[in-house]
Amino acid sequence: MRIIVTGGAGFIGSAVCRHFILNLGHDVVVIDKLTYAGNLASLAPVASSTRYAFEKLDICDTGAIRAIFSKYRPDAIVHLAAESHVDRSISGPDIFVQTNVVGTFNLLEAAREYLEANARLRDEGFRFIHVSTDEVYGSLGKIGLFSETSPYDPSSPYSATKAASDHIAKAWHRTYGVPVIVSNCSNNYGPYQFPEKLIPLTVLNALHQKPLPVYGDGSNVRDWLFVDDHARALGLILERGSPGETYNVGGRNERRNIDVVRQICVCLDEMRAGEKPHERLITYVTDRPGHDQRYAIDAAKLETDLGWRAQETFETGIKKTVRWYLERADWWRPLRNNLYQGDRLGVLA
Ligand code: NAD
Questions:
Q1: Rounded to whole angstroms, how far apart are CA atoms 98 and 100?
Q2: Which of 34, 35, 62, 248 should be mutated for ligand 1, with most atoms under 8 A from CB?
Q3: Which CATH number characterizes residue 298's domain?
Q4: CA dihedral in degrees (224, 227, 232, 237; nearest 10)?
Q5: Hey, what's the torsion of the CAs at 296, 280, 85, 34, to 10 degrees?
Q6: How many Å lie between the centroid of ligand 1 and the Cα of residue 89?
Q7: Domain count along the chain
Q8: What is the pLDDT of residues 25-56, one digit of tens each?
Q9: Ligand 1 within 6 A of 165 CB?
Q10: Residue 305 lies in a domain
Q11: Which atom of ligand 1 is nearest to the CA of 158?
Q12: 193-215 mean pLDDT
């Protein structure tokens, strides 16, 4: 298959490209604006492949997106391009509305026109995979899990724009017959994640002997999924998922934020024993406004219908991740030096 991957230079997008090209043998065309979160170094493992092409462009650029469909004539699009950091959405929501809502609308319109001009592609299994988040469902109490039928109740500007784009994507399926599939995934972690998110931020701050910030009392719960498990799920959804369906993706790895940070400290104590105990760096800071208490995913539909299983437990995945950051300063040092030094984002005055 020839697949357009939007946001392919980002954290999950680059894992998807590596998986699709190296393991599944697909041809991939990456569309990416290369914002602060986009990094061509994350695509280095596939950059020399004849199966890989890159186009630097903004998904909000209607003309350019249309031209890409005509130029590459894709069999599918996996749409990951987004502004993705909740804290940044609190300080500056405008770009979130532009990219996540208007950009998704633009891609759907381009796909609709492309299918209208090439009707046989619909029969030949063209797919539009819209990659979204469990944050659209809002916050859970102490018990229960999000399923595909959970009502939408987003709390942050980020999750609200993702929710809006999910609704638009589903409407383009129902109204225009674009073969859209929506996936809603829990928190990802793993190699190549921009060091503003909890896990890489904690690892790098610890390496620099800086405070490890924990929001509020650290009791907020997230359901963690190793990024390569997410990439495999998207490969299966593309191959076997049904248009119009939603699939929840989650690792059954619920952890309180404070326990995630402590576990990273334990890993670092083992790997860099000279600097232990790293837990002494943990610092509680003002909570995030609108901070959802708990997310947890019921991935039974994906497991039963498509035969997916997460391969990594949190224990194995976090060790791999911490080790990767220790070994790949060549990847993160330019980001830490030039783009983001680990300061607090998303605090209201
Ligand atoms: P990321 O921030 O690491 O990467 C986003 C990528 O999109 C970057 O390469 C960036 O340059 C690109 N991009 C941003 N605006 C663009 C634009 N206007 N045009 C073209 N490219 C643009 O994000 P991520 O963590 O890899 O998330 C990817 C997708 O998965 C997002 O849609 C996100 O909502 C979703 N998601 C993320 C998680 C998670 O835990 N990270 C969980 C569930 C769903």
A1: 6
A2: 35
A3: 3.40.50.720
A4: 70
A5: -130
A6: 13
A7: 1
A8: 999 999 999 999 999 999 999 999 999 999 99
A9: no
A10: yes
A11: 34
A12: 97
Domain region containing 151: 2-190+223-253+294-313
Q: pLDDT by residue (tens digit) across 183-193?
A: 999 999 999 99
Of 27, 58, 83, 135, the catalytic one is: 135
Mean pLDDT value across residues 109-125 = 92
Is residue 287 flagged as an active site residue? no
Catalytic residue among 52, 114, 137, 158: 158
Q: Is 344 a member of any domain?
A: no
pLDDT beyond 90 at 196? yes
Question: Does residue 82 line the site of ligand 1, with CB under 6 A?
Answer: yes
CA 279 / ligand 1 centre spacing (Å): 31
- b/e per residue, 64-83, with b = 16+ CB within 10 A? bbeebbeebebbbbbbbbbb
Token pair recorded at residue 92: 């500056």
Structure tokens at 289: 């406004």
Q: Is 55 a catalytic residue?
A: no
- The answer to whether residue 124 is catalytic is no
pLDDT in tens, 316-340: 999 999 999 999 999 999 999 999 9
Indicate the pLDDT class of residue 124, thresholds 50, 70 and 90.
confident
Tokens of 32: 């990416």
Q: What is the pLDDT of residue 235?
A: 98
Q: Is residue 321 part of a domain?
A: no
Residue indicated by tokens 């170094």:
41
φ, ψ of residue 246 to 5 degrees: the values are -115, 140
Q: pTM of the predicted model, to two decimals?
A: 0.98
The residue length of the chain stands at: 349
Residue that has been written with the tokens 């993706």 in this structure: 249
Tell me if 71 is assigned to some domain.
yes
pLDDT of residue 261: 98
**What pLDDT score does 349 carry?**
78
